[in-house]
Structures are given as structure tokens and as C-alpha cells.
From TrEMBL:
<feature type="binding site">
    <location>
        <position position="354"/>
    </location>
    <ligand>
        <name>substrate</name>
    </ligand>
</feature>
<protein>
    <recommendedName>
        <fullName>Glucose-6-phosphate 1-dehydrogenase</fullName>
        <ecNumber>1.1.1.49</ecNumber>
    </recommendedName>
</protein>
<keyword id="KW-0313">Glucose metabolism</keyword>
<dbReference type="InterPro" id="IPR036291">
    <property type="entry name" value="NAD(P)-bd_dom_sf"/>
</dbReference>
<dbReference type="Pfam" id="PF00479">
    <property type="entry name" value="G6PD_N"/>
</dbReference>
<dbReference type="InterPro" id="IPR019796">
    <property type="entry name" value="G6P_DH_AS"/>
</dbReference>
<feature type="binding site">
    <location>
        <position position="244"/>
    </location>
    <ligand>
        <name>substrate</name>
    </ligand>
</feature>
<comment type="function">
    <text>Catalyzes the oxidation of glucose 6-phosphate to 6-phosphogluconolactone.</text>
</comment>
<dbReference type="InterPro" id="IPR001282">
    <property type="entry name" value="G6P_DH"/>
</dbReference>
<feature type="binding site">
    <location>
        <position position="225"/>
    </location>
    <ligand>
        <name>substrate</name>
    </ligand>
</feature>
<feature type="active site" description="Proton acceptor">
    <location>
        <position position="249"/>
    </location>
</feature>
<dbReference type="InterPro" id="IPR022675">
    <property type="entry name" value="G6P_DH_C"/>
</dbReference>
<dbReference type="GO" id="GO:0006006">
    <property type="term" value="P:glucose metabolic process"/>
</dbReference>
<keyword id="KW-0521">NADP</keyword>
<comment type="pathway">
    <text>Carbohydrate degradation; pentose phosphate pathway; D-ribulose 5-phosphate from D-glucose 6-phosphate (oxidative stage): step 1/3.</text>
</comment>
<dbReference type="GO" id="GO:0004345">
    <property type="term" value="F:glucose-6-phosphate dehydrogenase activity"/>
</dbReference>
<dbReference type="GO" id="GO:0009051">
    <property type="term" value="P:pentose-phosphate shunt, oxidative branch"/>
</dbReference>
Amino acid sequence: MENQTTHQLPPHVFVLFGATGDLARRKLFPALYQLHRKGSLADGISIVGTARSEYTHEAFRDEVHKALKEFVKEDIEDAVWQSFAKRIHYVQGNVDRLEDFERLRDFVLELEQKADHGGNRMFYLSMAPRFFGETALYLKQSGLADTKGWRRLIIEKPFGHDYASAAELNDQLATAFAEEEIYRIDHYLGKEMVQNIEVIRFANSMFEPLWDNRSIASVQITSSETVGVEDRASYYETSGALRDMIQNHMLQMVMMTAMEPPSRLRTEAIRDEKVKVLRSLRRYSVDEVKNYVVRGQYTAGQMNGKAVPGYLEEPNVAPNSQTDTFVAAKLFIDNFRWAGVPFYIRTGKRMPVKSTEIVVQFRNMPKHLYFNQAGNLGPNLLVIRINPVEGMYMQLNVKRPGTDNVVVPIAMEFSQSADKSPEAYERLLHDAMIGDSTFFTRWDEVSLAWKFVDPIAEAFRTGAAPLHTYAAGEWGPQAAHDLVKENPGLWWPVYGDQTPSVETVVSRERANAVEVKY
Ligand SMILES: NC(=O)C1=CN([C@@H]2O[C@H](COP(=O)(O)OP(=O)(O)OC[C@H]3O[C@@H](n4cnc5c(N)ncnc54)[C@H](OP(=O)(O)O)[C@@H]3O)[C@@H](O)[C@H]2O)C=CC1
Ligand SMILES: O=C1O[C@H](COP(=O)(O)O)[C@@H](O)[C@H](O)[C@H]1O
């Protein structure tokens, strides 16, 4: 175990609903284990898993051990595991039954009598969303939510299916928990480089004065995935890329890129600024959607030279399903800072590379004194790389060494080892445990995001926005390329795990590229 940190997370009982599920195995137990391994968990932190399956405490610990071996990058050291295992308990229960919550409550009370947990309780709902409202209600009715110290509710996505269902869920949660006790997860907010957007913007005087419509021509945000729908069709058929990615992760990145500087680095000050972006986000009517939003669905194609099926051939997908596996959109933020600057966003499954990047394109020089070999001058770009590489690079123009005065674009690059960054869930659990909800979504953010998305979903449902197709392994349908045709003319390439060099940044300069690196 790493040295004990001086700042340990406060004691509490951590109750994990859905403890036998996929998310718990792949992300949550690995994140808890990492916090334990780093010495961040105080002695008085106990973990109680619950789900319908029958396990003894010992058998459940064995399951967790297997999950850690599969999903933690490093080897699991036996001594660390043994001490982590002591924290773990299991109580069988069905969230449809109040009496099961009462048994769980009695178990938690027993634990609290045996050791000091500070009277605090954390509840993590890692279950199908249909259980969220009822679980919150039973937490209250069973007395589990009656604590001597603090109580917090971490809730997984999706938060509703549209504005109406999200508002209904929020009302249900509000009967048992106050807004400041609710931690709505958006795991993109736990990513190192998403959190870094604020720092890049507000800690560098060379960027902030340029961060507006006088200097920036457009912003592009891409989150592309190589995987298809995998075995998640029963969920994905109800969400599509619009609800799965745009309503939450993509809009969060738009907010982080476009927000005003907060007056102080305080949770509510930051969230207030984010929410103002959504208030200024231009909403499209159902009829307008087709002009600004492109939806696509992948057909059979090639990924890395291997044939893969189309979405309609995937298991449990409805015949003739109209589900969107790709969405691109042109957004406008109608405030002083961003008036007239298009924010292009796109996300899709079965695309050529797995990558999340934000490309900020600066305006052209007012007059071109210099030209590259193609007779123009490439724009300056600031690219924030979120996944899988963590870093950023700037594309600048410099003179190629020699006497011919040719100007070439270069990429000045910074990247850090993503392996060293804590995983998003580790960071978010840490924040929830210290009571910092900055990187969780507040209800007004969620509700405004749904109000923006609802007319788009309606246009998709009614066919007012056509469903385009794209072959697996392509960058979405042609219509997505047409969206950017006028400005800037292309989607800037994203690189996945490749290091962008000038050779890849601007391919027409490939033969003559110079590359500057720190
Ligand atoms: N998996 C992922 O990668 C991601 C998941 N999420 C979200 O996380 C949440 C969980 O997803 P995931 O882990 O994939 O889902 P799973 O279907 O894998 O797990 C669901 C969990 O809920 C338990 N459960 C089901 N019904 C009941 C019930 N009536 N009473 C008590 N427990 C019950 C199941 O255990 P048992 O059958 O033993 O009762 C299981 O532990 C969802 O909200 C999902 O949207 C978000 C992002 C990514
Ligand atoms: O929330 C989700 O995100 C993942 C993509 O997350 P990333 O961290 O790998 O970029 C996506 O695959 C999934 O469909 C969606 O539910």
C-alpha cells in the first residue's frame, strides 16, 4: 500500500446498489480499490454492496477480487487486497421491497455500532434508472437516509429520458434528498483533461484575451468510438447517441469551453457560469433541426481491416430500427462572447479511431503576407486532447528553414501519461466523499440540456430530420461533412492514440514539415 496520505477521505458507510453489475465490476470497485491502495480511505469507511443475487460476505469479496484482477491495470498486491477486503460487506436485497431496505438499514446500524463511521452515509445507485426514484423513496421510508452526520446520493446516468421524465425523477429524489446532497454523475467531468479546460483557459493569459468571437472562428468537439453497440442494445435502442452522449457529455464539454470565468473557484460559482452557457444555447424548433443536426446509423463496414456488422444486424436491435448511432450538430451560443461562432459537435460509434478532442480554430490573419505552398495560410489551432491521449497542441505557422520563404504549419505539443491520471470514477468518488460537487451536474444544467435536446429527439422520432447511414469505419455520413462545408470546410482530423506531428496535422505539407516539441 502506498504511504498514507495526510488528507484522508472522511469516514462513512458507502452503500452500493447494483453491486453485482457491470459498472460496479468494471469501474466502481476498481476506483474504490485505487483510493484504498493510495491510502486515501480513512479506517472508518466501510463498503456495503447490495443487489438481488445471493452472496455471503466472503463469496462477494471473491467476486470483487476477480473483478479487480480483470479491470485494475496494475497487479493486485495480496496485502493491499486483504486490507481492502475487510472493508467490503454484502447484503442481499430487492429495491422493490421496503422490508429489504429495513434489513439493509439494520446491517448498516450494526456496522456503525462496531466502528466509528462518523454517522455519515453515501448511497450510490448503480442500477437501471427505473429504480432511482423508488430507491430514494425507500431510503427515506426505511430510515436508511436518517443519519447523524451527512448523507449523499450519487446517481448514475441517464437522468431521465426527456425533460418531463427527468423533472419527475428529480421531484422523487427531492422528497428524500436536498439538491446539495445529490451527486449526478457525468463521468466526462471526472476526466483529467476535461477538468484541465478551466485551467488552460483561466491560468494562461495568452489564451483568455483571445477566447471570444473576435479571435475564434469556430470550435469543434469530437468524441468518436470504435466500438459498436456491443451487448447494450436494450438500453441504446431507447437512447441513441443523442441521449447517450450529446445530452450529457458533449454539452458538458461545450459548457466548459464556453463558460465565463467564475468569480471564485467555488462549486456554485463554476456551476452558475456553466448553466449560463446553456441558457444562451440557441434552441432549434423541430422544423429547424434538419438544418443544424445530422443523425446517422452505421451499416456493415471494416474496422482495422476486419468486417463488422451494421447496427441493424447487432443482437437485440429492432428490425428497421431508426436509432441514431452518430450525431453531429452545429450549435450557437447567443451571448456577447460567442455570437456568430459555430460550435460543431459530433459523436458516433464505429468510427475510425477512439478519440475525444476539442479543436479551437482561431481566425485568419486580416491580410495574408505569407502563404504556404498551397497558396494560403493554415489557421492557428489549439487542440485539447481528452482521450485516449491527455494533452494539448497548438498549430502555428513558421518559416521553413531555407531561402525559399515557404511557411509551414507546425504542431507544438504537450502530452502527459494518461496512465498516471486517476480514472474518472476514482476522481468523482473522491470528490463526492469530500462533499465537492463541482464536477457533478446540477439540476438546472440537466433540465436545460433536456430542453435543448427534446425538440431534436422529436425531429428524430418523427423523421423531420432524416436518418443517414455511414459504413462502419467512416467518419459519419456525408451530411456531417456538409455541415462544416462553409466554415471551416472540414472536420479537423482527430488522432486517437497517435501523436500529431505536423505531418499528420496538415497533410499537404507532409513532405516539408518541421516539428517543434518541448
Ligand atoms: N456499464 C457501464 O459501462 C455504464 C453504466 N452506466 C449506468 O450505471 C448503471 C448500472 O449499469 P450496469 O452496471 O451496466 O447495469 P447492470 O445491468 O450490469 O447491473 C444492474 C445491477 O442492478 C442490480 N439489480 C437489478 N434489479 C434489481 C432489483 N430489483 N433490486 C436490487 N438490485 C437490482 C443487479 O444485480 P442483481 O441482478 O443481482 O439484482 C446489478 O447489480 C445504469 O444506470 C447505467 O446507465 C453508466 C455509464 C456506463
Ligand atoms: O456514457 C457513455 O460513455 C461511453 C464513452 O465513454 P468514454 O469515457 O469511453 O469516452 C460510451 O461508450 C457509452 O455509450 C456511454 O453510455
